[in-house]
Sequence to fold (656 residues):
Amino acid sequence: MKTNKLTDWLPTTKKEIKIRGWEELDVILFSGDAYVDHPSFGPAVIGRILESYGLKVAIVPQPSVNDNLQDFTKLGIPKLFFAVTGGCMDPMVSNYTASKRRRDKDAYTPNGDIGFRPDYATSVYSNILKEKFPNVPVLIGGIEASLRRVTHYDYWSDKLMPTILETSKADMLVYGMGEQPLREIVELLQKGVPFSSLKTIKQTAVLLEREEALPKNKNWEDVEIQSHEVCLKDKKKFASNFKVIEQESNKLRAKRIIQGVNKKKLVINPPFPTMLEAEIDASFDLPYTRLPHPKYNKRGPIPAFEMIKFSINIHRGCFGGCSFCTISAHQGKFIASRSQESVLKEVDKVANMPDFKGYLSDIGGPSANMYKMKGKVQSICDKCVAPSCISPVICSNLDTSHKPLTQLYQAVDKHPKVKKSFIGSGIRHDMLVPEFNKNADPKELDDYTEEVMTKHISGRLKVAPEHTSDPVLKLMRKPSFKYFHKFKERFDRINIKKDLKLQLIPYFISNHPACEVEDMANLAAETKDMGFQLEQVQGFTPTPMTVATVIYYSGYHPYTLKPTKTPKSKREKEEQHRFFFWYKKENKDWIRKTLNKVGRQDLLNVLLPETKEKAWKSVNLKAVKNTFDDAVPATDSNFSKKPRRKKKRKSRPKRR
Fold:
C-alpha cells in the first residue's frame, strides 16, 4: 500500500494550503468532529464530494469557541460558501446521556476527550461565521441540521425549538445525505448563479420573508403545516405536523413543505430520488486515506475510528421506520446499495492496510440485512406513503431476498488476505422468520442465518426485539415478540446442528411511550423464562424527528392524535429500568412491593420464586459473575447445566 503524504488529506491549516500551491479556497468546512478521512464520516464525505467537483476545499475540525475565535478566521474567506456540520452525531447526543448527565467521553475526538464540541454546535459555528462574515453564505448540513429542520422538541433544554435555520442564521440547509443537492448547488454557482437565488434545489430548506412569493416550480405541490407559533401554544397541533413531515420526507414524489416561523416562512423542498448504484459507488470510490489526519498522531486514538477502521458500509437507508429511530429521517426509507464490485474494491484497500490482521469488523449498514432490497413494482413504491415497509406487516411488494447479501459475504471471504469477516451491524431478526416474512423462501432465510452464525460472528449474535409488550411494540413499529421466540427456535436449532455454542444477545428499551411498569415486569419475567439475564439495555432518549419524541413531548400520537401516555418523571424512568436488573439483591424487595401493589403475583412468582430463589442463585452464579466481570450475559447454556456439587472435604483432626 502507498505511503500517505500530508497532501493526501484535505488541508486544515494555512501551511497545508500553501503546500498545495493554492492562493484561495472555494469552500471552508467546519465540523464538530475530529477530521477522519473515511467514507463512514460525513464531514470527510462532504469534503471529498466538493473536491470531486473541482473545488479547493479545506476543513476546520472542532474549531475552538472559547478563545479569540481565530479558528474561524485563520483560513480567510471562501469564494463560494462556508459549510457547517455538527458532526456524525447530534452534538447533544454526543455530549449528554439519556438522563442528561454530561458524558465523560466523546467518541469522535482523539483519546475520547470531552470539551472540543459545543452544545448545538451547528448553530454556534454558524452564528460566529455570520457575525464575522455577514456577506458570505453559510450552508449547514449533517445529522443535527437534518433532524432539526422544522419546529422540534429539544429534550435537553425541554423546549420546543424552531427550525435550526432560525437559530443558526444560516442561509441554506441541506437535509439527508448531501451528495445530490451539493452537486446541483455547485453546478449552479459555477455557472454564475448567486447563492441567494438557489431556492428551488431539491433536498434543501431556506427561510424567506413572510410576504416574499414562493419560488415557482411547476412540478411541485405545496403543503402548509402548523406554524411555529401555533405549535408553541397547542401540543396537539404540533403533533399533527409530524405525520405530514414524515410522509413527505419518505415519498418519491413529495410535496414542498411550508411553515410559518416568527416573521418568516420556512420552505423545505422535496427530496431527491434514492441514489442509484453508480452514484453511491462514486461516493465510496473517492480517494479517502481512510485514516485520521496526521495532526492527531500524538493526541491518542479516535474511538469512533478505531471501531470502524476495518469495516465496510454496503448500503444506506432503512425501511424499518422504527418510532424511536432517526435513520429514515436522515437517510430515507429506500435502500441505496453499492455494487458488489465497489464493495470488493474497498475490501481490497482495507486488506492492504499495513496493520490489517485479516479480520473485517463489519460488513453492514443501518440494518445489516437490507442490502439490495427494494420494491418489486416501482410504480407501487412511487405512490406509497407508509413510513415503514415491514410494519405492521411486510409489504407484499417488498423483495426481501437475502441471496445477494449471502453471495456478497462469500465473495468478500474469498479475498486471500481476509481470514474472517464479521457482521457488527444490527440484524433484523424478524425478516429471517418465515412466519413473519411470508414472501420469502424459508430455505433462503435459513441459508443466510446459517451463513451468519457459522462464519460471521464471534460467539454472540446481537438482535433488537426492543420489548415484549405487543402494544408497546406496535407503537414502536416492531413486530410481536412471538417472532423473537420463533427466531430463537431457529437460532437454537442451528446452534445444536452445527455445535456452535453461540449466544443470542437481545437489545431492549425501557421508558418508551405507551410502556407501563407492568410491561417492564412482563419483559423481565418473559426474558428470564427464556434464559436471558439482560445486558444490552437502555432508556428511551427523545431525539428530534421521531414519532416517539413527538409523543413524549405532546402526549399525542401524530398519526391518530389520540392521547398516549409516556413515562416522563425521573422516578418513573428509574423504576421501569430497574426491572432489567431483577437479579440484583438491592432490587428484590422493591420488585416484591411493586408487583404485590399492582396485584401481579404471577410475575413475582416468575421473577422471585421464594422457594426456588436459592437454587436459581446457585445455577446463575457463573452467569452473574460473567455479567458483572466480563459483560457476558447468561443464556440457555448457563441454565441448562446442573450446578456442580462441591466434593465434601474430609475433616481433619484439630491440632492442639
Summary: Residues 401 and 440 are 6 Å apart (CA to CA). Residues 482-498 form the longest helix (17 residues).
